[in-house]
Design goal:
CATH topology: Carbamate kinase
Shape: globular
CATH architecture: 3-Layer(aba) Sandwich
Helix content: 40-55%
Order of helices and strands: EHHEHHEHEEHEEEHEEEEHHEHE
Number of helices: 10
Structural class: alpha/beta
Largest sheet: 8 strands, mixed
Strand order of the largest sheet: 3-6-2-1-9-13-14-12
Distance between the termini: 24 Å
Radius of gyration: 17 Å
CATH superfamily: Acetylglutamate kinase-like
C-alpha cells in the first residue's frame, strides 16, 4: 500500500482560542489512531500550527521579516516537538523533519529535497512535517501544512491525503455555533465554487487562509493529480482509521476529481 499523508490539524491538537495551548485529549486520541494503522500503512504525518504558529505569525507579521522568521520557527518547532515527543514516548518510531531545511523558494519556484524522508519511510520511521515560515529570494513565505504536502507529493505520491480536524468535515456553517450546519459530503469540480462561496462568508481567516484557503488549495491539488483528500474529525477514531485505510467514513468530506 502506498504512503498516506495525514495532517493533525491545528484546530484538533491545540486550543486555537488560547495562545500556545495544546489539546492533550487530542494527542491521546491521535496516538490511538497511529498505533492502529502504522504497521500496515506507511505514513507521513503533518501538524498544523494552531494556537502556536498562527499566534506568532499574527503577532509578528508587521515586524521586520527576519524577526517574523525566527519567531515563526520557534513557535512551529515547539508544537512539532511536543507532538513528536508524545509519539515517541508512546512507542511510535517518528521523527521531525523541518520543512525549511528541505524546501527552498527561489524566484523560479520551489526546490524540494525529499531523500531524507524517503530513507525514513524505507526504514519504517514516520516523518513528521509541519507548516512553517520559509526564507526565500522574495522574502518570508508562510507555508501551510497542506502546501508542504503538495510539494512533497510532487516527489512522493501519496495514495490519499487525510486531514484530521476538530469537526467531522466541511459544513455549510460552523457546526459549533450554527444550528443549521449541514455536512458537505463531497467536493468536486461541479460544486467547488458554491462551496467556496459558502466558506468565504462563514469561515474565519487565519495565517494560512483558514478553511477557505485549505479547501481551495486541496481541491486544486486533488483535481490536478487525481489524489483524493478526506477530511474528518480526529476525535472520531473509527472515522479517522477508515479514512487512512482508504475507506469513506459516514461523517466526513471527500475532495475528489470525480463526482
Amino acid at each position: 500500500m502506498g504512503v498516506v499523508f495525514v495532517k493533525a490539524g491545528g484546530s484538533f491538537i491545540t486550543h486555537k482560542d488560547k495562545p500556545v495551548k495544546v489539546n492533550s485529549r487530542a494527542l491521546s486520541v491521535l496516538i490511538k489512531i497511529v498505533h492502529e494503522v502504522k504497521e500496515n500503512i506507511p505514513l507521513i504525518l503533518g501538524n498544523g500550527g494552531g494556537s502556536f504558529a498562527h499566534y506568532a505569525v499574527l503577532k509578528y507579521r508587521n515586524k521586520p521579516p527576519l524577526d517574523l522568521l525566527v519567531k515563526c520557527h520557534q513557535a512551529t518547532r515547539s508544537l512539532n516537538r511536543i507532538l513528536v515527543d508524545y509519539l515517541v514516548e508512546s512507542g511510535v518510531r517518528a521523527t521531525s523533519i523541518q520543512p525549511s531545511s528541505i524546501i527552498y523558494m527561489s524566484k523560479q519556484g520551489f526546490e524540494v529535497y525529499t531523500k531524507p524522508i524517503e530513507v525514513l519511510l524505507e526504514n519504517k520511521i514516520i516523518p513528521v512535517v509541519y507548516g512553517e515560515c520559509v526564507l526565500s529570494e522574495v522574502g518570508v513565505v508562510v507555508l501551510s501544512t497542506e502546501k508542504i504536502f503538495e510539494l512533497l507529493a510532487e516527489h512522493i505520491r501519496p495514495s490519499r491525503i487525510v486531514l484530521l480536524t476538530d469537526v467531522s468535515g466541511i459544513f455549510t456553517c460552523n457546526p459549533k455555533t450554527c444550528s443549521t450546519a449541514e455536512l458537505i459530503s463531497k467536493i468536486t469540480p461541479e460544486n467547488l465554487n458554491s462551496v467556496l462561496e459558502v466558506l468565504k462568508n462563514t469561515s474565519p481567516i487565519d495565517a494560512t487562509g483558514g478553511v477557505y484557503g485549505k479547501i481551495l488549495s486541496m481541491s486544486t491539488f486533488s483535481f490536478k493529480t487525481g489524489i483524493e483528500v478526506i477530511i474528518t474529525s480526529g476525535f472520531d477514531v473509527e472515522s479517522a482509521i477508515l479514512a487512512i485505510r482508504g475507506q469513506f467514513p459516514k461523517r466526513a468530506t471527500i475532495i475528489s476529481p470525480s463526482a
